Each structure stands twice: as structure tokens, then as C-alpha cells.
Automatic annotation (TrEMBL):
GO terms for biological process: pyridoxine biosynthetic process. CDD domains: PNPsynthase. The gene is pdxJ. It catalyses: 3-amino-2-oxopropyl phosphate + 1-deoxy-D-xylulose 5-phosphate = pyridoxine 5'-phosphate + phosphate + 2 H2O + H(+). 1-deoxy-D-xylulose 5-phosphate binds at residues 45, 50, 105. This is Pyridoxine 5'-phosphate synthase. NCBIfam families: pdxJ, PRK05265.1-3, PRK05265.1-4.
Length: 245
């Protein structure tokens, strides 16, 4: 079964828009865990516009008794303070994601070769600390080859192009999906695990979840947007049911 990791960034976005502590990120994590989710993701950005450094620690402390059943995935760009925090907390997984100035959300995967000197020592340090490393990449052979060369354990395939194609119609979605199938097969042949995320939702996930060798999907915006209307526990169970079908 493909694992679901719920990205709780948007809970922090709502909280920060007003200040204070409501809604609580940890309470959202608790609802997800009680609903049976096997993974939680946070993406603390340098400007702390949603998840803060304290949130990262608070979620870690909440999840500590659930280790072995619920994986903690901390994602972000490999800035020194974030890598230091990940090494200190030792979550199950760290997903390294490129950040472009002024972006609202992630816009692309790593460009092969360009950031080798930045990423290589970070990956080595994380792996030495026992943290599984995933690199956020485009579904392209060159990017996957590069991730394998750097020593990454997994790749996270950037799925916005698939989601946009699916919005245009199922035929376009299927054509885009074939690109991801080829990428997944190549990654698996190189010994890499396969994660995926960005704009996956209840409409397009039924198809994408059939991707060969898919280990995990990370979903935040679509899941939490629907939770406004039906409740967080309900929507988490909807995603878990879809992934178990």
C-alpha cells in the first residue's frame, strides 16, 4: 500500500495569519494520527511563514511515542540551521527541496549537477545520522541519475505537471502519467525509493497511486482545503481508503 504523509503547513498558515496558537499544528497532527495516517510532513521555510522552528520540535515530541508506526518527514532547502535541526531530531526522512526567491510554493525539482557541491555534504551528513534522504526532482532520467550519484535514498517526483495535465482531461493526464511511469521504473532500477507530491488530490490520485514502485505520497493543500468543509479526520480517511483500494 502506498503510504500517505499529510503535510500540515496550511494549518500553520492559518494560525500565523491571525497570530497566537489557533489552529494548533500539533492538534492537527493528532487528528491525522488518530485517523490512521502513517506519515506527517512539515516544510519549515527560512521566513517561517507557516511552519516555525518551534513547530518542528513540537511535532517531533508529539510523534515520539508513535515512532515505528508514523514517519516524520522534514522537508526544505539544505540551509545549515535546518540540516542541524534535522540531525538533532533524526526524523525518519528528510526531503531536500530547492527554493526560489519569491516563490509561494515549490515550483520545480533540483536542476541536475548545478547544486552538487551544496547537496553532497548535506546528504552524507543526514545519512550518517540515520535519516533517510529524498531529493525533490523532475520525472527525468538525468535528474534521477544525479540523485542516485549523490547517494540519495529516494526521489520525490514533482507532480504538478501531471496534475495540470489531468485537469485538462483524463487523456492528457494519462499521457503525462506515462512520463512518471518511465521515471519510476528507472529510479527503481537504480535502487531508489519513490515518493511523489505536489497538487495530488482525490480526483487525480486514483490514477497516480498505480505508479509502479510508489512508496509514499505527500499531500497538504488539497487535503486541508477539503477538510474545511468535511473535517480533517473525514478527509484523511478518504485519502487512506483511496490508497488502500
Amino acid at each position: 500500500m502506498v503510504r500517505l504523509s499529510v503535510n500540515v503547513n496550511k494549518v500553520a498558515t492559518v494560525r500565523n495569519s491571525r497570530g497566537g496558537s489557533v489552529p494548533s499544528v500539533v492538534e492537527a497532527v493528532d487528528v491525522c494520527v488518530r485517523a490512521g495516517v502513517p506519515g506527517i510532513t512539515v516544510h519549515p521555510r527560512e521566513d517561517q511563514r507557516h511552519i516555525t522552528a518551534q513547530d518542528v520540535v513540537d511535532v517531533h515530541e508529539y510523534l515520539a511515542p508513535h515512532r515505528g508506526r508514523v514517519e516524520y518527514n522534514i522537508e526544505g532547502d539544505p540551509r545549515p540551521e535546518l540540516i542541524d535541526r534535522v540531525v538533532e531530531l533524526r526524523p525518519e526522512q528528510c526531503t531536500l527541496v530547492p527554493v526560489r526567491p519569491g516563490e509561494i510554493t515549490s515550483e520545480a525539482g533540483w536542476i541536475p549537477q548545478r547544486d552538487r557541491d551544496l547537496l553532497s555534504p548535506c546528504i552524507a551528513r543526514l545519512k550518517q545520522a540515520g535519516v533517510r534522504v529524498s531529493l525533490f526532482v523532475e520525472p527525468e532520467r538525468a535528474a534521477i541519475d544525479w540523485a542516485a550519484e549523490l547517494g540519495s535514498d529516494r526521489v520525490e517526483l514533482y507532480t504538478e505537471p501531471f496534475a495540470q495535465a489531468y485537469l485538462r482531461g483524463r487523456d492528457d493526464g494519462l499521457r503525462s502519467f506515462e512520463r512518471y511511469v518511465a521515471a519510476a521504473e528507472h529510479a527503481h532500477a537504480l535502487g531508489l525509493g519513490i515518493n511523489a507530491g505536489h497538487d495530488l488530490d482525490l480526483d487525480n490520485l486514483g490514477l497516480f497511486a498505480t505508479l509502479p514502485h510508489l512508496d509514499e505520497v505527500s499531500i497538504g493543500h488539497a487535503l486541508l482545503s477539503r477538510a474545511i468543509f468535511v473535517g480533517l479526520e473525514v478527509v484523511v480517511r478518504e485519502y487512506l481508503e483511496l490508497l488502500s483500494a
